[in-house]
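Practice problem: predict the structure.
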Amino acid sequence: MRVNSLEGLCGALRVHFMGIGGVGMSALALLLSDMGYVVSGCDLSRSAYFDALEKKNIPCRIGHSASHIDEFSPELLAYSNAVRPEQEERVAAEARGIRTIGRGELLSLLFNASFGIGVAGAHGKTTTSSMIGMILERLGFDPTLAIGAEVRDIGINAKIGNSGLFVAEIDESDGSFEFFTPSVAVITNVDWDHVDHFKTREDLLEAFVRFADARKQGASLVVCSEDVGNQSLLKRLRKNSGVVTCGFGRGLSWGAFDLKPEDVGGISFSVMHEGETLGRIELAVSGEHNVMNALMSCAAVFEAISILKNSLKEKKYILPDVSFDDVAKTMSAFRGAERRLEKAGVKNSIDVIDDYGHHPTEISASLSAVRDMYRGRRLVVVFQPHRYTRTKIFYREIAEALGEADVTLLLPVYSAGEEPCGVTSADILSIMNSRGFEASLCRDDEDALSRLDSTLRLGDVLLVLGAGSVTKLGKKYLEKMS
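Answer:
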């Protein structure tokens, strides 16, 4: 059975989450718990998010089992897209007439009932939604948040607010973003990814067109017009009103110019809105991609305020007054989202940076940003490819992107539950070696840690890149060197 309205969440409902250890599922579980629902969950292994869940007295079981249905007697079972339909716990719930729902659809029920600011895109959505959430939180709007990583400046990735504003990172990976109808939609880029779901670039583009056209009446659409995919999207929109373009230069709705990277990290830039120069934003995070993330965040916040002011003209509720200087000051304090060019530490004059990037575009942006942060220093990268399907399509582009490093150590592919499909990290290595790039293949994390001992030199920068087990490698290296 499926939940098709917010009414399905009313009353003293018990909700059980399969895959509760994931960042998105844990965020949603915390939201429902704070709303007063009885929440439980399970996952195949303990994750870093279990501590926060257990502090809320949310019971979390290791492993999936039909016995959880008896133990928790849920009235609704929510599952991550990693949980297959044939899994016994899902089958048992369906057999007993218990309603089941995917994470994205469940989140959309909460989001669509609010004034939703939804951020979608292949890359940058976590940082952009984090920036928007932090701005609104710091400036007194008290938004509800559901973001795909911890916002370090707030210390959480999910919270219930009292204002009716809802900022959400909207995941396109399984197509569930089409359930969302934002009041302000942000599309950072339309770059082909999640090839297990979107078989062609055209499939992905059409899905984004449907998402953009599904926004609410009078809603704004904020896009980065520098992105080729977004340029194609804009030509296909059926709902053309409310489009806000962001990019480099002065000829757009919002433009960034006079960019100045800082040697110690960070970048500053001037902002123009509809032909008027508003001032400068100084970011503590680095990279031109973060300039675009910040510009879209700025645009989204002011679009939301404008729409809300018009809708509240006849009501007594007064919105906080917000100036560009207020937003710029708040943005200057933004330290980034978890695992987005996160500075993990320094040992023996070696700076360790941790980053989630695994798509060729993300890899290039991350390496470019680190080069700007640490000019003239040697860059050593440990990279773990994410999913066999993505690696099969993009292994050549991944090899080219990694070629910007001085030395690359490759870990085996993180399968994320996929079966091998005839491609491995050795295929990336082969391309890199043929291009003369310095790279080697590691058996596992321990082998990579061992090789780092002989590879790293004083003053190097170590960038730990990707998803899977590599997420813990930077911390392991720092602990080993203690």
